[in-house]
Design a protein that fits this description.
heterodimer, A: 791 residues, seven-stranded mixed β-sheet, five-stranded mixed β-sheet, 20 helices, B: 286 residues, alpha+beta, four-stranded antiparallel β-sheet, globular
């Protein structure tokens, strides 16, 4: 029993039996009596002016209870964003359509089919206007996306300029000067980091039940951020937080798409309040494709300057990032997450400019990695091109420019400090576990046979563990929903009267196994088997505040909170146990579910006895208050900065352009590992989504703004059979930002993999002179690059 | 993903099924293609006639020189049948590359053929194999040659009152072999065909006596590459000869561009996979 609570143990996930046997409860499983259903009428046009909305026929159709349009809901005001730059989407269209899929009317009916029939029957008459889709076109301001904005460029992030209070130096002159040096090698590439659709197996789903008797809401939502939703509803409806209970039950994937609060969640709550009945909406797969946030969508030119022998002298990125039409939660701030890691693992001056532009498309926001995969992609692709240019091994080039182990904490030009790192150790491990020298030999032999085999290497550093309270100043907070402006961690540890333990945490997991990991954290600290511990999350009635799960933040922030709460519980329990054992508290140790005096395990008191004593005043030592629970809010002083280096071996069929991944090796360092199996699961999923971007996925709007890839028919996702076995390894460089020395691993695989695959394919085709291919590396693009290089 | 209202009937006999068919009715076997179309409201029949409970249509049978595959034979059964693998190799390969495990366990070979998708695998195979479609309507049965069956994208020669009850494929005789190969949308052979080809050859004394090649994924419909087949006949079937003939692979096809390939690329792939399929078919000759 005791082994199951050990930190660092590959404990099987306690969530899995329910989920694997189909017994988990998701929002769409909830079917209260008198439930009403929602369908939206959505714009088929990207840019249009509505002349009329005729709901007369639709409202008479069978089962239709109500149809709401803009005027019905305008009084609630638009749902705010946290980063208030750009245009907010009206709850229902105010007459100006800005992207396909924008909701015009909301139909409530007795069943989902009737709702859809009526939504289809609403007659919309509108003038269709020209759409702005391309990023360069948008930046040119030739056509405005929003007439009342001065420019399509909402904001420009620069490396030194995002945080004026820090007085950072503009390093652009340093980079430019380096380019003028006689010995400078300058390599530059324009590259696209394409728009992606975050596909969760469970689409978004929300059910609101307004209690007419007590004027309060119970809302179930497939959300990564239940407390934020609670705050948004309370703010918009002018209600106290205590009357808005939000529950996120099982959530089947999110990847950032469920980190937003959405208009539809507010509208469903509104409908329930208007109609006095529970109301539910579950998005269709097509709505998930076109009306839930997208990710990435960058076009940029990366330039690196270095010496002929591999010393980096500077790096410059000039990019345009697609915000979509409207601003949601963190939209305009997503590139900032990339900016902070713009220099990767390397010591060098950086000039970084990203223009955030609006287009007539769906909003972009956080998708697994959020800004960081983009930043690392540009950096690591151009480093690879530079290494090829000077004829140096890509690992050696990187190593030559790494921050060295004894330089941490290392302050970067962006003002942040890397907490800890040992980049050489990760690379050494990679060379070792991948058999790098043998791989090079194998590649060269294959080339001699006329085969196109390539090896790609990519390093990354990322930033997670959000976060430090200072981030709230730039909008990384839930302040616009009336909530505290800091991304603190929350953890409550409660020992129940029978000695079992309930842990309440402020996360919003979507499959990451928090119920297992937190049981290990708390169990290990208290000496209690994980089986005796129940972890609860996602119910705003449990805890006053919870930030949710995103940005690989949970373990480093909420994990630390729970750890500290467990430590405090243990301190109090030691006093009680000492009293029962007639010993001194400082001599008490906890293991195997009981307390005993160090060195005397034969006389012990079980947690049940300690708990029982804790809840009755007459059995407590003097000065100890009744009860045995602690609630901790943890505020980290810095983010955490995980890192790693990945390697891929690919073979290209030069006749068809088909890419086959022969081998994939990842060395990641996320500090201490609580549950290595769960960590590896996160790396697996992360790499898979990175490979998906590299090879398969692309959200495509045509020039009229029609989304051509709105269903899975045209949006290919990687499956297990498309992928090689991932060889995973970890180095461990703990952080001192939190007491467990953990950093976070949710996004590392995605941040580390896309460029690694592209680097490998370009290496495979380098004998032909191919220098770059834009993602996704579908066979047609690879083939076209081969043709171009061959001609 | 919510279909419009429709009537659902699950007849117990073929006669009942015939009675339920009409202009606005649609036959459903596995439903793997029909249901998604209905859920996206791209297709909304008034009546769905589920033939899944009809007895006697789930057999793979040898009938004097042919193998007959009934209307309810699943992709997985076609893919794993030793008989089909031996005497109609291209079809068993095509069935094994159709969809994923769930789709193969639910969808049917006849359903995939009747659906006539322009990027599907098995229609190309039955074209190359020179199969015959057996269509049943009320009181009448007719046979349709595969070459006449695939009319356009998602359009077959079946009348609204007809059910494709079986497909009959000539068994490979001495000197004959067939094969199917494709490039899938997720690379390798995964997913719908970006380009795919099925080939059947008859070898005689070291040269190709007869051949049929069919293409999928590249054109407006699955189609026979007759010019290429004609160019193959009389050659020795060497790699050089096949590759040369494959330059005519798309002569009979209207190539169309999609998200996975330009016209130029698809034209190129048509030749590549036509050649690969023919060479594999030759090596499959027993």
């Amino acid at each position: 029993m005791a082994t199951t609570s050990v930190m660092g143990g590959a404990v099987r996930r306690r969530e899995d039996p329910a989920l694997i046997t189909g017994r988990g409860t998701y929002v769409d499983d909830l079917q209260p009596t008198s439930l009403l259903h929602v369908a939206f009428n959505r714009s088929p046009y990207a840019h249009a002016r509505i002349k009329s909305v005729d709901t007369a026929a639709a409202s008479k159709m069978p089962g239709v209870v109500a149809i709401f349009t803009h005027d019905d809901v305008a009084h609630l005001g638009p749902l705010l964003a946290q980063v208030p730059i750009g245009k907010l989407r009206p709850l229902l269209s105010d007459g100006e359509i800005k992207h396909t899929g924008e909701a015009i009317a909301m139909v409530i009916a007795e069943n989902r089919y009737q709702a859809q029939d009526a939504a289809d029957a609403i007659e919309i008459d509108c003038d269709v206007l020209p759409a702005v889709i391309g990023l360069k076109e948008a930046k040119s301001d030739a056509t405005k996306v929003h007439e009342d904005l001065d420019s399509n460029v909402l904001h420009t992030w620069t490396y030194h300029g995002y945080w004026e209070a820090l007085g950072l130096e503009d390093q652009t002159p340093l980079v430019d000067a380096a380019m003028e040096r006689d010995d400078a090698v300058v390599v530059s590439l324009e590259m696209t980091n394409q728009r992606l659709i975050p596909v969760a197996i469970e689409p978004r789903s929300v059910m609101a039940d307004y209690d007419l008797g007590y004027d309060r809401f119970t809302v179930h939502s497939s959300s990564q951020v239940p407390h934020a939703l609670s705050g948004a509803i309370a703010t918009m409806f002018g209600m106290p937080l205590s009357d808005v209970r939000v529950i996120a039950p099982e959530v089947g994937g999110g990847f950032g798409a469920k980190l937003n609060v959405y208009n539809d969640e507010i509208l469903v709550a509104f409908a329930s309040k208007q109609l006095g009945r529970p109301v539910k909406w579950t998005e269709t797969r097509r709505e998930a494709g076109g009306a839930t946030i997208h990710g990435r969508g960058w076009l940029g030119t990366a330039t690196i300057v270095g010496t002929k022998d591999g010393e980096f002298l500077g790096y410059k990125l000039e990019a345009i990032a697609d915000m979509g039409a409207y601003t949601q939660n963190f939209t305009v701030a997503i590139p900032l997450l990339g900016l902070w890691i713009a220099s990767g693992q390397y010591k060098m001056p950086v000039s970084w400019t990203v223009d955030c532009v609006v287009t007539h498309t769906m909003t972009t926001d956080a998708y697994r990695g959020a800004g960081r995969p983009e930043a690392i992609y540009y950096l690591e692709r151009i480093i690879d091109a530079y290494a090829r240019e000077i004829g140096m091994d890509p690992i050696e080039v990187r190593r030559k420019n790494f921050w060295k182990k004894d330089e941490f904490p290392a302050t970067m030009g962006c003002g942040f400090s890397l907490d800890s790192g040992d980049y050489d150790a990760a690379v050494d491990r990679l060379i070792d576990v991948s058999g790098y020298q043998d791989l090079l030999k194998m590649r060269d032999e294959a080339r001699a046979e006329g085969r196109y085999v390539g090896i790609g290497v990519g390093s990354y550093v990322e930033v997670c563990g959000f976060g430090p309270a200072v981030l709230a100043e730039i909008g990384f907070s839930w302040a616009s929903y009336g909530l505290p402006a800091a991304f603190n961690g929350t953890g409550m540890v409660r020992v129940n009267p029978d000695g079992t333990v309930t842990v309440l945490i402020g996360t919003g997991p979507t499959g990451q196994g928090h119920e297992t990991t937190w049981a290990q954290i708390v169990g290990s600290e208290l000496g209690i088997a994980a089986e005796m511990i129940r972890v609860r999350h996602g119910d705003t009635n449990d805890l006053p505040m919870g930030i949710g799960t995103f940005g690989s933040r949970s373990i480093a922030v909420d994990g630390a909170a729970a750890f500290n709460a467990a430590t405090r519980v243990k301190e109090k329990a030691a006093k009680i146990a000492a009293h029962l054992l007639e010993a001194a508290p400082e001599d008490v140790v906890f293991e195997d579910g009981a307390a005993h005096v160090a060195g005397s395990p034969e006389k012990s008191v079980e947690w049940a006895a300690i708990a029982k004593a804790a809840y009755q005043a007459h059995t407590l030592p003097e000065g100890v208050e009744s009860g045995l629970e602690e609630n901790v809010v943890f505020s980290p002083g810095n983010a955490t900065w995980p890192f790693g280096t990945h390697l891929a071996v690919v073979e290209v069929d030069e006749t068809t352009g088909d890419v086959k991944i022969l081998k994939y090796v990842a060395v990641d360092d996320c500090g201490n590992l609580v549950n290595p199996m769960i960590v590896n699961g996160q790396v697996h999923g992360g790499i898979t989504q990175g490979v998906g971007q590299a090879l398969f996925e692309e959200a495509v709007y045509d020039e009229s703004g029609n989304l051509l890839t709105g269903s899975l028919l045209d949006y290919p996702l990687p499956t297990a059979s498309d992928l090689p076995y991932f060889e995973l390894s970890h180095t461990i460089t703990p952080t001192d930002v939190n007491p467990m020395g953990v950093k976070g691993i949710g996004e590392a695989g995605t941040i580390g993999s896309a460029h690694t695959i592209v680097n490998a394919v370009v290496d495979a085709l380098s004998p032909l002179g191919v220098k770059h291919i834009d993602m996704p590396l579908r066979p047609k693009r690879v083939w076209a690059a081969i043709q171009e290089a061959s001609n | 993903m919510y279909p419009r209202e429709f009537d659902y009937v699950a007849p117990a006999t073929l006669e009942e099924a015939m009675g339920a068919l009409g202009e606005d009715a649609k036959v459903m076997a596995g439903g793997m293609s029909l249901i998604p179309l209905m859920k996206m409201r791209l297709f909304s029949p008034a009546v769905v006639v589920d033939i899944g409970r009809l007895p006697g249509f789930d057999a793979v049978e040898e009938q004097n020189g042919h193998v007959s595959i009934g209307a309810l034979v699943r992709h997985s059964a076609t893919a794993t049948s030793p008989l089909i693998n031996l005497v109609a190799t291209a079809l068993s390969t095509a069935a094994s590359l159709t969809g994923d495990v769930q789709v193969r366990n639910r969808g049917t070979t006849c359903g995939a053929i009747a659906h006539a998708d322009l990027v599907a695998d098995q229609p190309a195979a039955v074209l190359a194999l020179g199969a015959t479609m057996v269509a049943q309507s009320s009181g009448a049965s007719r046979e349709i040659a595969a070459a006449d069956f695939f009319v356009d994208a998602l359009t077959s020669a079946l009348e609204p009152n007809e059910i494709l009850t079986s497909v009959r494929i000539p068994k490979h005789g001495p000197g004959e072999g067939s094969a199917y190969d494709k490039l899938g949308r997720r690379g390798g052979r995964s997913d719908y065909a970006i380009a795919g080809a099925a080939a059947w050859v008859k070898m005689d004394g070291g040269s190709i006596a007869d051949a049929r090649v069919a293409l999928t994924g590249v054109g407006t419909k699955v189609s026979l590459a007759n010019e290429m087949a004609a160019a193959l006949v009389g050659t020795d079937g060497s790699e050089a000869a096949v590759k040369e003939a494959s330059q005519k692979a798309s002569d009979d096809v209207t190539i169309i561009e999609d998200l996975y390939g330009t016209e130029e690329y698809k034209t190129h792939l048509a030749s590549v996979f036509a050649a690969r399929a023919v060479l594999q078919a030759i090596s499959n000759v027993s």
